[in-house]
């Protein structure tokens, strides 16, 4: 997995078994992009791939030369005002207002391994031999300012990790735009894949063909958002889940972002990704520097599934950290949808007792345990136990739950405050809002100004005390509103352009402190469900609450979309009540569990109101999940049939050694006179024979057994028809809407 510098041609070639990434220092000293894609044989020069165009009206860099124009050359990190008319990867302003820059190659360094990004989440190596890093330093001689472009190539992943660092020179500068990376591609024959949605409809898959001009997704909400995820993929038009060329781009960041694709009028495509430049203005004085977040580019020549599997493995093993990274996740019960704010110690203990009886391993006490909080109007910011609700205190409650054989977990929302709180009364200027004006509430709450270290320190003190005083083994860290009138009270003008990024650095620093101080605690991130389900948070919390929508049918789409980037081990997925609290839909307990198995798994409903029969079914589901969670959370995930395109859908997870798999089939509405249907499985060994059983998790029954070779299952397909000969059909009495089926495969 070398990084090679061809001195004569000033070309860099980064390659491993699967990919090549090539660029060169152009005649004007700027880095010019040549290629990213399938591995190429190394050679001294790939210069033939650079097209110098003779085009009228183009601004050209050299007198007497009419072909060297940055308007038409592919670049690594383009600036505006240098002949290039496209959207730049960065922009800065000098003291006198000039934005003209000229950053030229100065030096480079290649080293084994990968450095950490101080204060920011990033992928990492465990051994230096896993990756190599190239740092290219560009300098603007007039300013003395430098830009360091960093590229890491891993031996085992078809990815390039990029980030950029700006160093101020003799003269102070203001960064107006500082993307993490940029990628110019020689044609526009791609479709843009994005994950978009809203609260309780997160990460639905949308695909659009590229068109001339700019197409982008973004967040200016202070969090990565329900609306868009910091990810996009460019796929060839013929690429599908299993074949075709795809480039995935993912930003390891949890705040405002921009992911943008521009197609110019000569069909060149430019992808840029980074902190959103609106609202961003970062002044640098001599001696200071600015580090961008990291951007991951993943290349696949085998379709979207392959791209996703790369992200899953990279993020599960080289982004997530800590004790829980590789461990099977505890099966939990969360009291939110069981009680909402209306609970007391008695109710909690009764719920916990039932949970323990059916084999649940962790009890999570959600919102409402602190201050005077009985609804959403008060107490955020006052992280002391509410003794009216929990008279024996947190320590004793945790102990009693521990005695039942379960771990105890707690919900917090450290970044927020209610006006009705002691914290707000003492520090009204700690809100991230212009306190001289009216500012919006959202769910009656306000954002604390985490750009200020004293605010983070104060909250840290409170939360550390809570976590230190009771035996807490899990924390759900929530964040329930977007930013609106952002202003950092009492800070000067230059701080205001930094506040949004400083805020997220404050969040990361609190996460870092708490995860270091409490290394045994499993952290789960949450933001009104999935508004901050991004790679940045995954660095601190190995799992996240995927969505507040717990309806099994909607969850199929949400989890399917989420799996484009995020591993099953990161997806919080619970069985909730029927009718469902968000959609009022009735679904069977079996279907609810069959969807929730494909994640971290838990329950979120009032067990004290269920029948003995239902509890018995859940007991079966829990032991089923205990048996298969290593396979599910650590195996290779395949999307088989797309719920956005069909009435039915399917996915499966295969063990790394391909000896075992679980496949799930879901059908929304029952068709009349249903046609025959087969799902073509994936990831099996063609020449191995598998025993296929249909599983009923809840009753621990399996309905018969068939034997098939892998090739038959992958190329012929597994029949899921209602009535079929040969393979199993669905009994008439089981047919109906919201059907789900689960198949276990084991190598014979
Ligand atoms: C939003 C979360 O997504 C829910 O699961 C729950 O924790 C509530 N907040 C509590 O306020």
CATH architect. name of the largest domain: Distorted Sandwich
Q: Tally of extended strands?
A: 39
Total tally of structural domains:
3
What is the helix content?
10-25%
| Overall CATH class of the largest domain | Mainly Beta
Shape: globular
Give the topology, please.
Blueprint: E1 3-6, E2 11-15, E3 19-25, E4 31-38, E5 90-93, E6 104-112, E7 131-140, E8 145-154, E9 159-167, E10 173-185, E11 190-196, E12 204-209, E13 213-219, E14 228-236, E15 246-252, E16 257-263, E17 269-275, E18 282-284, E19 289-291, E20 294-300, H1 303-318, E21 332-334, H2 336-339, H3 345-357, E22 362-365, H4 393-403, E23 407-412, E24 416-418, H5 422-426, E25 445-447, H6 453-469, E26 474-477, H7 493-496, H8 499-517, E27 522-525, H9 535-538, E28 543-545, H10 552-562, E29 571-572, E30 574-576, H11 589-596, E31 602-604, H12 612-634, E32 636-641, E33 648-654, E34 660-667, E35 678-679, E36 689-696, E37 701-709, H13 710-716, E38 718-719, E39 739-747
Parallel strand pairs: 21-22, 21-31, 22-23, 23-26, 26-27, 27-28, 28-29, 30-31
Antiparallel strand pairs: 1-2, 2-3, 3-4, 5-10, 6-7, 7-8, 8-9, 9-19, 9-20, 10-17, 10-18, 11-12, 11-14, 13-16, 14-15, 15-20, 16-17, 24-25, 32-33, 33-34, 34-39, 35-38, 36-37, 36-39
Helix pairs in contact: 6-8, 10-11
Bound molecules: (2R,3S,4R,5S)-2-(hydroxymethyl)piperidine-3,4,5-triol.
